[in-house]
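This follows on from our talk about sequence and fold. I would like you to pick a protein and set down its sequence and fold. Go ahead and set the record down below:
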Amino acid sequence: MAPLTSISRFRRQSVYDLKQGAVEKIPSCSESRAEEAPPPPADPKHVKEMIAAQDLHTEFQFPQEAESQLSSDTDFEDPDGKHAKAAKGTAAKKGRKAPGDKAKGGGAGRVPGLGLVNGNHQENGMDNMTLFEVVKTGKSATQSVVDDWIEAYKHDRDVALLDLINFFIQCSGCRGAVSGEMFRHMQNSEIIRKMTEEFDEDSGDYPLTLSGPQWKKFRIGFFDFIAVLVRQCQYSIIYDEYMMDTVISLLTGLSDSQVRAFRHTSTLAAMKLMTALVNVALNLSINMDNTQRQYEAERNKVIANRANDRLELLLQKRKELQENQDDIENMMNAIFKGVFVHRYRDAIAEIRAVCIEEIGMWMKLYSDAFLNDSYLKYVGWTMHDKQGEVRLKCLTALQGLFYNRELGLRLELFTSRFKDRIVSMTLDKEYDVAVQAIKLLTLVLQSSDEILTAEDCESVYHLVYSAHRPIAISAGEFLFKKLFSHRGPEEEGLPRRGRQSLNGSLIKTTVFFYLESELHEHGAYLVDSLWECGSELLKDWETMISLLLDEPIPGEEALTDRQETALVEIMLCAIRQACECHPPVGRGSGKRVLTAKEKKTQLDDRTRITEMFAVALPLLLAKYCVDIDKVTNLLQIPKYFDLDIYTTGRLEKHLDALLRQIWEVLDKHTETEVLEACSTTYHYLCNDEFSIFNRVDIARSQLLDELVDKFSRLLEDFLQEGEELDDDDAYQVLSTLKKISAFHNAHDLSKWDLFTSTYRLLNSGLQNGDMPEQIVIHAMQCTHYIILWQLAKVSDGSSLKGETVTLRKQMRAFSLMCQRYLNSVNTAVKEQAFTILCDLLMIFSHQMMSSGREQLEPLVYVPDSTLQAEMLNFILDHVFIDQDDDNNSTDGHQDDEASKIEALHKRRNLLASYCKLIVYNVVEMDTGADIFKQYMRYYNDYGDIIKETMSKTRQIDKVQCAKTLNLSLQRLFNEMLSELGINIDRSSSAFCGIKELARRFSLTFGLDQMKTRDAIAMLHKDGIEFAFKDPSPHGEGGPPLNLAYLDILSEFSSKLMRQDKRTVHAYLERFMTLQMALQREDCWLPLISYRNSLQVGGDDDTMSVISGISSRGSSIRSKKSKPATTSKRKLPEAEENSCSSSDAVWMNREQNVQTPVMMHSPHVTSTVLRDPKKMRPEESYTAAYTMPAEQLPHQHVPTQQQQPHHPHQAAIDYNTQVTWMLTQRQQAEARQQQERVNMHYTKMRNHMQQAIRRGSGLMEDDEEPIVEDVMMSSEDRLEDINEGMDFDTMDIDLPATKNRRERTELKPDYFDPSSIMDDSVLNVSMY
């Protein structure tokens, strides 16, 4: 190898300055070290400003006064290291062997006692294995592999070094190898270029990117090999001015390669090599400190006791260590400036991440040399990287520094400069980055309270309510450290529990924070965020109870009513979190399996909660009996009790107190949420598995007896008053009915037989018409519960024989009652009736007989058409309305945004209830047409519901779903006709809206045409029939009334299969007349465009010449641009004309029986080749649709005026026409085959003539515009390509799957415009 780049020139330099970014040539290894000048003293001053310096400041300043912590005074004194300088000198003077002394390929003969033979490793039977293979297999210990290599290096350093070079080459995934000849005579750049040519271009994978356990193990072995190699060579070999110079020069060259594998592998190796050198430099610094301390101690002795020989040895050792330190410094400078400075901003994110990760290690390991602004600035700059992986490495590197408080204090300037960036990264789009940014800010907070301002902290506080749980937990830890971790001297000595304890103050702080955040009803999220770091505080329920029940001491500020409500909510959330052990809804993918320790903690917490709140809960209910929010939350606590403790703990008297307080709460409140909480509490306590069941059941029965008796008595009085309803009586009836309805939701009240009473009440409301709406609503709800409980008994088989018939009668009568209430004047009543009807129809549908419940067949209820129509009208009148028109649902508060959202939510529920009936085939699917047509107009409000409904209906019946979509478009079309009149403007917004809706419907059919073949065909069939259904309002000769609908129908033509397009086109021609085919006015454009959409991609023998003329521009251009095919596979006629659906029999019939008026005739070759401009419409029509008169001797051929106009009439007798078709079929097929051959030959000849004319510049007038258009489009494409190319900067970094070869002559690739389109093809100049 030619003289390699060396770094010995810089051995005495303390500052390695390469401002131009290039490594200079270094003198040979034989230069005398004694001739070099001593190094200048290092500047002890640190940099004051971090970013202000413009020059690249990379000098290493090794401390001379640091205390030794890792080594003793004799750590560096080893047998191999005592004469390191002598070894260096010998190595430097040692010459290379002659070429003849070495084996070809750089190998050497077997040396006894060594582990390398011919450059290969030999141990444990692993013969002929390279270093790469040994490290890859991982069967040998890294220490032994490195020791074998060192022995081989001592024997012949060139052979061993060649093996090491090939190790790095092979680790990059290159199949080539550096030979001994290349090593001796080629420069590094030439070797790298040669290896680039040997790279595997077909694969973009290389060892560092491959997945699997084997390659993961290889990466670990690769890192260990570099670290152990440097560690084992740190006493002699790395100072021989040969090995390290060669490796660093090679890795620097590879790191600048355009091949990603080379660049990534060499950069990683260089960074790991740098980390190993940092460890060596750290050891040298420690040993220098130890030596200096020993020298000072010996010199300070009195002269009589001073050992001069020891002073000389220590002085010589210190000088030797200083020289070694200078060498290591120069090596690190070479790697830093040759590799890191260029690769930390590499185009590949993985390479940038490697650089940032390693520089973080350097600053952490050797902070005295690296922890300064000259190196921190790279981490600060890279925090703005576009890739989250790199930003994440920056944050983890900084976390490693801030973990050490001493190092964190030295980062004040960096923190002040980049603090805003770190704070902004808490909102990073990558969740992992945001989590690490919050953790870094937590470490910054621990190091100093003064760095982060109040605004910085507030930007993190609100993240405790984040839906992403790792972010919320990190923010909770930050909040806990900020608010709860600092204790003042006055807080020392406070009791651990109770109102006056330290936790009492912290709980108050939590309540204050919760109220200031103004995110109420999210207490569960706050508790979950603080649970991992502050669970001990949140589980201090004793202190919470004390804060709520105990009176404040003199001088203490009592909690306000708002603060007490917040404390009750936080207490309930903490109880739920302890008992359920899973995050709230929206955080987490589901319940995880608890460990044995977590289960034990859960049981212990539940026991504590029961013992504590069984006593305290009645007191709390008594104190806050009239407060709705507090009572509602407190009544949810018993469902987390362990009910056995009431018996085992002798707490029955507290249970009785709890039941009395619930009764009192029930008596004082009529709010729905409070009543439902009472009902739920009774339901949980009335569990027959526990011994307290009888006690609770008796109390519940007494409560319900009293409520039912009161309701019956009030109802009789109320119904007898008739029209003279008293407000007080109405209030009493309503409150009692609400309580009964709330209990009926969770408890079976069938034995009280409430159906008769509620039905009488509803019937009276219909007759009188002035019943209060809330009474009607709750009466409906209660009756609904009665029917559901009765159905549950019938389904379980526990009912009596006649109860099924009774249930059927009650259900039918109640459904009829709700149907009558759909016409009520009150919106709330109608909404309640509609919701209950949807539930009843769904429950009592035909699906209730599934799972072997055929005995329920008498209960199946199928809605009649009247009920379906009334429910659909309700949806159209109350759901599909503008936001401002919804006056009743928002109670007049249109300006209140929350009310609007609530009203929208209610309407979405109504629509979803009805769509569920469509999906489960309870109502007819075509009733969904009026809903589907609203898809575009109300897309923002109900688009997801309508789209899901269409998807489900398509899964049930594709054909019927297609008919429903078509019906919705037809209804929109009819509405447009009624609004705009018969003269339709196809550019109007209404028509464009219908067309856009059809396009959206078309997209919902997907890409698999085979699955939707029948549905699409049926959709076209129904659409064609609708277009020609009504005659022209302008009389004969005018277009049908709905002809414009064909323009809308053309949106579905792309979903037709090739053979189905011909079938649909034939079906279309059944409705057409001769005059329709000849019309070219604007009013006939929908028909023309629809026919063209059906003919695109069809065979020549099925194409109409008339449609070819109407679409002259597109058809001729397509024929010119496509070469003629010599052989075209033709499907059998039976196969082409087959249809998979029984509903599409019309398709099969249409292929075999042609209509007389629009019959297909074979194309005549001369007609097809004739200039279309010179063809008269009458001639083209005759060639396409008429039959020769001589072939029908017994049939009169009508003239053009005698052609019928009605779509279902024919001018020729139908049977005669069929007979003619059967006799002419064989002749027509033979004639068509011959004509296709002739057409193909003629097309080829025309193409050749056009090519000759193009070259000579002679073109026909008819062909000129088309050829010019083609040429212009080609030129435009070339200009676009040239415009996006920068031929001066072809240094392109390909992704991992496209390795770019670095060669002297690269073949044209897709970056070269000349490889895309040759100049000779179009005779157009590239430049």
The first strand starts at residue 116 and ends at 117. The mean pLDDT is 75.
